[in-house]
Amino acid sequence: MSTAPLHIGNLQIDFTKRLLSIDRFDVVINDNDNSTINIATATIPATIKQEEFKRTLTINIGCAIIDQTIQLNEYTINDNLLRIKINDGTELLIKYDRKEELYEKYEIEWTNIKCYHYMKDVIKADANSQWYGGPQIAQQTWPLAKTLQQFSPYLSSDILKVNYYTQFYHFHNNAKNNISGMERYWLCSSKFAIFVPDNIPLWTSYNYDKLSLQAQIDNSPYIGFFANTVAPSLSYSIFVAKCCTLREFHIAVHGNLYDSCKTIPDEAMIRKPIWSTWARYSEKVTQHDVLEFAQEILNNHAPICQLELDDNWATHYGDFDFNKVKFPDVEGMCKQLEQSNIRLTLWVHPFVSLISENGKNPTLRHLFVRDSNGQPGIVEWWQGQAYVIDFTNPEAVQWFCEQLEGMKKVGIFSFKFDAGEVTYLPEDVHLYSGASPNDFCEAYVRTAASFGSSVEVRVFRHTQSLPIFYRTMDRLSTWNNIGLNTLIPVVLNFGLHGYYYNLPDMIGGNGYGGEKCSKELYIRWMQANEFLLSMQFSYPPWQYDDELCDIFHRIMQKRNEMMNFLIEACRKSCKSGQPVIRPLWWLSEDPEALYSGDQFVIDDTMIVAPILTEGATSRNVFLPNGIWEHELTHNIYTGPSKLTIEAPLFHHAPPYFTSVE
Predict the structure, then answer these.
(1) Which of 3, 217, 390, 582 has the fewest CB atoms within 10 Å, counting from its CB?
(2) Angstrom distances, CA of residue 125 to CA of 191, 258, 422, 597
(3) Which CDD domains match (predicted)?
(4) Using one digit for the tens of pLDDT, what is the confidence trace for 60-71?
(5) Judging by beta carbons within 10 Å of its beta carbon (0-12, 13-18, 19+), is residue 202 exposed, middle or buried?
(6) DSSP per-residue string spanning 538-568
(7) What is the pLDDT of residues 158-206, one digit of tens each?
(8) Degrees (nearest 5) of the Cα angle 189, 190, 196?
(9) Among 45-54, 139-148, 542-551, whose mean pLDDT is lowest?
(10) Do β-strands 118-124 and 351-353 pair in parallel, antiparallel, or remain unpaired?
(11) pLDDT for 38
């Protein structure tokens, strides 16, 4: 059999070297400012010289096939299909689809894998390429950092998981690299995209620009979902842009993979902040605390959408009745808040404590997630041992919803649905229905969404179309370590995956370990969050001083002035299917824009550039092509340009620029 490389479309495969590559070409010019312009959308004078750049995606294929004597046995090829048979019986199929206007697609599939307990391919783009998307990461970056993401199953995970045997919320040393895998989509600035189907038992790692995709069932949470655990199949799609921008390419690919949200969530949650009891009162919160907090908010003339009662309101976790000692008159509390136009929302979760009345009730055991022995599985979460309600079971969903409806009858307006990750399912989990552990996450979110558009969740999977808020995992009260500098990367990553309504974590972080947010950090956090779609407070500004209260009110006033613009941007997003909060490369493919994770775009007409560094009173800003007005100084700039902008701490807004038509 010939060892010459095989070709299909622009794909070349050399099985002797275990190497696959795909080439594509960008035609670009350089203007007088050395700014890269894509020929696909630019109007170029005939006298300007154009250059063609080759972009290459390379894949080390069949990494499980270590024995170099195992080689290609036979192959067949036509316009749309390349089938390779290897002399150990394994087959590699490559399907080629070029019918779409803006991209080509290659479907890679390893089948008949009898000799290996896993199959792995390793993907790498050009050295100057950037990658976006993929998992949630504790220390989220945009684009993906070129540091190690641990090799792990690509499943939803609590990226700040508590060690049950140590101090509450003791974060592990390697927490910054923890990942939570929900949507299996990666986008490369060289205009390649990767998608892995949900039925693949996927493991991933990302290490210095190398994205590893591995199918493995043994010794993994996937084991209960496959009859044959020895021969996993690995398949994935590679999308290759034709002549279009990165923005156009992403919209086309993502739009064919996922639905988008066509309705705005509860506008009240955009217009006014959410106030949470969590960071300030933690699980010690009482009815007195709730009413005292509400009165403080009113006395300080702070805007409020709703007050969130977060944690330890029940007699036991998993019982749906209030602790009578801590909350002696829930109906009276709700009525008092309602008279002040304050909605009370309640923290809920999927756990039923073993010591709760519901946990001790044998007639409810069939509603819980089971282990490999068919028994209700016992898990450890941050409040001890518990069963987990199985949201893939319609009867369990009905029972859970009935409990929450009971809460609404006493005056609770809506709910914060916490947890929901595979982290908190039993080992060797067996769901009532579903083909993957992540099916639990989707079922949980769809149950939450049945309570309307005022809910918030922290997991997702194929739920982009639901008009609800998806919150950021807890942030630490720091600048750099899972703190403020992750605010924008998280929003952009959510948006790339189609979750446009991100609820950022509380201003100033959670204060874990007694680490109180400094006054400077609190102000910069407010400014960075000011033009995002929702704001959330727990530590109030009046706990600091009058100066901070003054800047708080000025920021709230400015946000209110911008509200019609933000709501209109949301409405446009519902029609176009595009994110509300967009990366800078939405407007430009200059290297500065492709690498920028500390600026963001709203509706193509506004660029926001907050201060995210301690002690800084100025920052560098990149403005793409066009004419831009600095709204705080009214200076006019012509892009593309790089600027250094002053940004005083006690200001009512971060630096932001609007397009001048």
Answers:
(1) 3
(2) 10, 24, 31, 20
(3) GH31_NET37
(4) 999 999 888 888
(5) buried
(6) SS-GGGT-HHHHHHHHHHHHHHHHHHHHHHH
(7) 998 744 333 434 444 456 668 899 999 999 999 999 999 999 999 999 9
(8) 80
(9) 45-54
(10) unpaired
(11) 56
Q: Check: CB of residue 653 under 8 Å from CB of residue 601.
A: no
The rounded distance, in Å, linking the Cα atoms of 478 and 47 is 52
Domain boundaries, the chain: 6-257, 268-348+393-420+436-570, 584-659
- Are domains 268-348+393-420+436-570 and 584-659 of this chain identical in fold? no
458 pLDDT more than 80? yes
Strand partners, 109: 93, 235
DSSP class of 229: -
- pTM beyond 0.90: the answer is yes
CATH topology of domain 6-257: Immunoglobulin-like (2.60.40)
Task: Select the CATH number that applies to the domain covering 584-659 from these four: 2.60.40.1180, 2.60.120.10, 3.90.105.10, 2.170.8.10.
Answer: 2.60.40.1180
Residue 44 in tokens: 């170029």
Query: Which residues contact residue 563 at a Cβ distance below 8 angstroms, ignoring those fewer than 6 apart?
Result: 270, 271
What is the CATH topology of the domain spanning 268-348+393-420+436-570?
Answer: TIM Barrel (3.20.20)
The CA-based dihedral angle spanning residues 299, 302, 306, 308, taken in that order and rounded to the nearest 10 degrees: -80
Which tens digits make up the pLDDT trace of 105-126?
Answer: 999 999 877 778 899 999 999 9
Rounded Cα gap, residues 425 and 455, in angstroms = 23
